[in-house]
Design brief:
This protein has 143 residues and is an alpha/beta fold. The protein has one domain: 2,3-Dihydroxybiphenyl 1,2-Dioxygenase, domain 1. Helices cover 19% and strands 31% of the residues. Strands 1-4-3-2 form a four-stranded mixed β-sheet, with helices on one face. It is globular. The mean pLDDT is 88.
């Protein structure tokens, strides 16, 4: 087994790097850390996740088997602000609710058509045994 720091970035094909960069900066407070003619790298606060935005008009918005990617909130009360931020930045909220009481979520579509999730997860103890997902959670690809 190799040791990694985990999944550290996602690269998205976008039509307009400037527009995509502004979108994720507005809703997540991401900071653009590198810019080139055809791509930009943004870093999210806290976890040091990186979003790479690559200009590729033909592939923009295609998913290649990935259903969505997600950002975990630090506080559950921030979900309403996230809904407003997505709409104000030009995104579309597809679904908004709670997985279970105290775990709010939203699924949204960015300007290039990518689906992403913003959610809060209640703290749970680390348990190496797999959990069984409820039908609703399993449908969303989360455990």
């Amino acid at each position: 087994m190799i040791k990694t720091f985990g999944l550290t970035h996602v690269a998205l094909a976008v039509r307009d790097v400037e527009r995509a960069s502004a979108f994720y900066q507005r809703i997540l407070g991401a900071v653009e850390v590198y810019r080139h003619d055809t791509f930009a790298q943004l870093q999210t606060p806290g976890a040091r996740d990186v979003i790479v935005l690559e200009r590729d008009v033909k592939r923009a918005g295609t998913r290649g088997g990935i259903a969505h990617f997600g950002f975990r909130l630090q506080r559950p009360k921030d979900i309403d602000a996230a809904v407003r931020a997505v709409k104000k930045a030009g995104g579309r909220v597809r679904e908004h609710g709670e997985f279970v009481p105290g775990e709010p979520y939203l699924f949204a579509i960015d300007p290039d058509g990518y689906e992403f999730e913003i959610w809060y997860e209640l703290p749970t103890p680390v348990d190496p045994r797999p959990r069984r997902a409820s039908r609703r959670t399993a449908r969303r690809g989360r455990l």
